[in-house]
Amino acid sequence: MKNNRKSRKIRNLVVICFLCAILIGVGTYAWFVGMKTVNVSSFDVEIATTEGLFLSMDGENWSYELDAKNATSYTGNTNTWAENGLIPVSSVGDVDALASRLQLYEKGSLATTKGGYRLLASRVHNYDKTEDGKNGFIEGDGYVAFDLFIKNLSGNEYYTDNNVLNEEDIFLTTNSEVKVATSGGVAGTGIENSVRVGFAQIGRVEATPGVASTNNITDITCTNVAAGEGQAQVTGICRQAQIWEPNDTKHVQNAINWYETSCNTRKEDGEDLTLASSYNADKCSGVVDGTSNKTYAISRVIGIDDNVDIYDGEQYNTYLANSVVYNAYNNAVNLNAASLKQTLDAESAAAAEEAKLAARADYKLVDFPYFTDTMKNLTGTSRPTFMTLAPNSITKVRVYIWIEGQDIDNYDFASLGKKISVNFGFTKERYTEGDINYQGPSTDITPKNESSSETNEG
Predict the structure, then answer these.
(1) Which structural domain range is residue 169 located in?
(2) Which of 69, 279, 432, 436 is deepest in the core (most CB within 10 A)?
(3) What pLDDT, in 10s, does the model give residues 3-12?
(4) Structure pTM?
(5) Of 77, 118, 17, the residue nearest 396 (C-alpha)
């Protein structure tokens, strides 16, 4: 195993994550009709870094490499590995500032309509469930979530304010991918095309040795905490999670057939979706393999009176009343720019969540702008930043992996694919060798000691 790691090219990576999720399913698991679960027999996470950036699952032991599921996690963690199976959920990346958890929504009920399926959705209860001995709220079932601590040692200054202008750009590596597993997977069902991976930055502390204790690190939440005796300054972040959509242009023909068979266009005045007269005889179109499609993700609880069809949206059944573009949603729901630059105390966090809930009542489905494989594969100056990390900091990142229920590729028979593998990596370098026609010495960089580790000093 060690020899295999040493032979692997690291290629100037800040973080390399390899996740192998083996999904074993019988029957259906899709958002649509049956939505049975898909059992998970294993979920492995291996992570490696270059010099100057360390990883930890417990906030105490730092290393260039770790296996996240099997590494020692801190006492009281609320990591969840979907041991009881995956079910589709949906999210627009909002992070609950009070619970320090990603807001997720699951199917409450589905009923067939003349042009699709009526959707009822409830919020996953990862914000109001606690358990003795646990540090924070307990996650729900049906998705993966875990805390990853990233220590970035570039620079010496620590910026206490939550401002991305003080932070370094991080890029998603071009070899990041989600695919059907080579061993045991069944190609052609498209199960890999509705996966989402979300990265929610919760907060950070200074990485200077002796400043933050292990408990300071593991106890990080979205709430700002002032420095004091035995307590490091905590900078609450709690910004919108970055969500990666792999395979955005890939759609298997069976998924397209399911969509075109199920979906009819909805009339502009067809408010009551239980009536056949609310739909046209025209079939929906707009899904073609090789092109990206929109995902109208769920932004709040959806009830009977909301009259939401899963296909609502300009690209699908052309019905506009229940969906909104992301910028309109984001401007209405989030705090203004000046407030976002301020760290949150408990009182302001509560006020912010109350304001967001009130604004969210006006919206149901959001055309969410994922970071896609299409963006990942752009070259040169066109390659976009994936996320940012502050220098001289230890950042608590809550990582989520789920099946997006509102993805058009999520259809009943996709579960026959059985097994998928997910791997992703991060780098600080915008350019690859090909971007600048590089012809110099080898750019492969391996840490001086791949087994190198350090213990938190504090």
Answers:
(1) 2-432
(2) 279
(3) 444 444 444 4
(4) 0.88
(5) 77
